[in-house]
Amino acid sequence: MGNNYDVVIIGAGPAGLAASIEASKSGARVLLIDENNKPGGQLFKQIHKFFGSREHKAGTRGINIGTELLHDTKSLDIEVMLNTEVCGITSDKKIWIIENKERSKEIHAEKIIVATGAFENSVQFDGWELPGVMGAGAAQTMINLNRVLPGQKVLMLGSGNVGVIVSYQLMQAGADVVGIVEAAPSLGGYGVHTAKVARAGVPFYTSHTIKKAYGTDRVEKVEIVQLDSSWKEVEGSEKIFEVDTICLAVGLTPMIELVWLAGCEFTYIGSMGGYVPVHDKCMRTTVDGIYVAGDVAGIEEASTAMEEGRLAGISVAYDLGLVEKEKAEERMDEIWNKLNSLRCGQFGEKRRTAKDQILEKGKELVV
């Protein structure tokens, strides 16, 4: 077999792990690739309990979910390559990789699932380049994976789930969160998360943004300013806080570079993070044999990413002829029922509408 695989999955986060398990259970020879030294992606940074229903792991911490998935990959003898970067893929399923930053080689797959996730957005203000300004995800990695406190006094920009969850975890790690700043007039995260932070005494500043960070060798102070209904600064409303860390939780952007290289069609959906690959309900892109799953297919949550991974895995198995049509359709229907359940309610309905836009284009374009 050599460097030839039935399925190569790029990205060993929630979506990639779930996809590898589903495809392997059906008998596919699977290779799972990740650039990090440990699989699991965001799950091992998520020490909080998942929110939702029991079937979506509600009440279970992300790290425990990640451990369960890793156990399944080992029991199935799925081949995993860590510390391996994927430099490019082609429409004929050639994949170029670099192992341990020193050795490159080419591998080939009948099918490719791209589950590369997303990267953190940034925002520019005077002093934004100072040490101590970082993404909220970076701070979460420091405290939950590396056991390093990024700072003693922290200001968080962004009140979505990432902003409030990481704020609470920073406090658990011993930091003082002096405030959470939100440019919009209302908070963006789930009430269950924002309430915990509010009860801990952290003030929220809605209709505010960061105007300037002060410091010489690192952040020493931060100035915030109120915004009016036209998103313009209100003169005289500035407030200054002494902080050593500013965390930015201002959204994510899908990591679509490899999918671009393969020649897949894209569409722009702002609420899903920007440009996302057009795909159908089976996670097939417009290039035959290339699939997507998780945040690369549109920014959502870890629970959704895992379900999309399972969907891509069973879809690949069916397209390889490893699963009968009736069984594949039954399994896909089960997964779609779970996805629709996740995409309900105040926040989920917006994601469901956005995903429907992508799937509608997928009906027209997917091979």
Automatic annotation (TrEMBL):
GO molecular function annotations of the record: oxidoreductase activity
Keywords attached to this entry: Oxidoreductase
InterPro entries xrefs: FAD/NAD-bd_sf, FAD/NAD-binding_dom, Metab_Enz_Cyan_OpOx_G3PDH
Superkingdom of origin organism: Bacteria
Residue span, FAD/NAD(P)-binding domain: 5-309
Protein name from the UniProt record: Thioredoxin reductase
